Automatic annotation (TrEMBL):
Higher taxonomy: Bacteria, Bacillati, Actinomycetota, Actinomycetes, Mycobacteriales
Gene Ontology process terms (BP): trehalose biosynthetic process
Cofactor: Mg(2+)
Protein name in UniProt: Trehalose 6-phosphate phosphatase
Organism of provenance: Corynebacterium stationis
Catalytic activity: alpha,alpha-trehalose 6-phosphate + H2O = alpha,alpha-trehalose + phosphate
InterPro entries named among the record's database cross-references: HAD-like_sf (IPR036412), HAD_sf (IPR023214), OTSB-like (IPR044651), Trehalose_PPase (IPR003337)
Keyword Magnesium: yes
Its biological purpose: Removes the phosphate from trehalose 6-phosphate to produce free trehalose.
Pathway(s) it belongs to: Glycan biosynthesis; trehalose biosynthesis
Length: 248
């Protein structure tokens, strides 16, 4: 599997950040990052005909606070609604939607001590991870209330301890489709751990492409690894195979 990917003419390696390159943590700007994975992504991006990207649910500015690499490594934020170096704009209608949802979610969050609303350029999310650790039942109740907020013409999705409203149709799948064309990739590897990463796995043409699911849960990815240490092992093995292929 790795040798076949390594010998593709133009390889694009795309990875989710939280839960894939870094451990999940309640301290969202203090997450432990796996340096072996970071080193591998950096090395991919320096090879000829090889491209690397981090594609995160975090907004781009937030991703840049925790992900240390920059160009030529590509950065996608807000589940693919933002790309480093590209303009992205909100319409008046999108702004009004985000303001309304923000108000309604904050009303819910005010009823639970550890719940909070995250603001991203295209999203508003109700987070209950800290609440779920103290009172799982209250966390579920908060999420259920969040899901009752009307998305109108826009979108709502759920993640781990999260209900998120989106003013954009962009997702990890649309980002991968757009940017695999940009780099003219002949094979894409995408790694991710959360339900939102399934949008990314869904656009892959496996087995030429490869989805790598981190941890448990239903997935369309063809390969599963256990944790972020196994992500690093996979990336390093693919890097070594790619370097050997290019040297011949
Ligand atoms: Mg993740």
């Amino acid at each position: 599997m790795i040798d076949k990917l390594a010998s593709t003419p133009r390889l694009f390696v795309v990875s989710d950040f939280d839960g894939t390159l870094a451990e999940h943590s309640t301290d969202i700007y203090g997450v432990p990052v796996n340096q072996d994975s970071i080193a591998a992504l950096s090395a991919f991006a320096k090879l000829p005909d090889t491209f690397a990207a981090a594609l995160s649910g975090r907004h781009l500015e937030g991703l840049k606070r925790v992900f240390p690499l920059r160009a030529p490594v590509m950065l996608g934020g807000s589940h693919g609604a933002e790309t480093e170096g590209e303009d992205s704009a909100l319409t008046e209608d999108m702004k009004a939607f985000l303001d309304r949802v923000d108000d309604e979610l904050n009303t819910i969050a005010a009823d639970y001590e550890e719940a909070f609303v995250e603001q991203k350029p295209f999203h508003r999310g109700l987070h209950v991870k800290a609440l779920s650790e103290r009172d799982p039942q209250a966390a579920e109740e908060a999420l259920a209330r969040g899901l009752e907020v009307d998305p109108g013409d826009y979108f709502v999705s759920t993640g781990k301890n999260l209900v998120e409203f989106s003013a954009t149709t962009a997702n990890k799948g649309t980002w991968i489709e757009t940017h695999r064309t940009t780099v003219d990739a002949t094979a894409v590897v995408f790694l991710g751990d959360d339900v939102t990463d399934e949008d990314g796995f869904a656009v892959l043409n496996q087995p030429t492409d490869l989805g790598v699911k981190v941890g448990d849960g239903d997935t369309a990815a063809h390969l599963r690894v256990r944790d972020i240490d196994e992500v690093a092992t996979f990336l390093q093995a693919l890097l070594k195979a790619r370097q050997e292929f290019l040297a011949n």
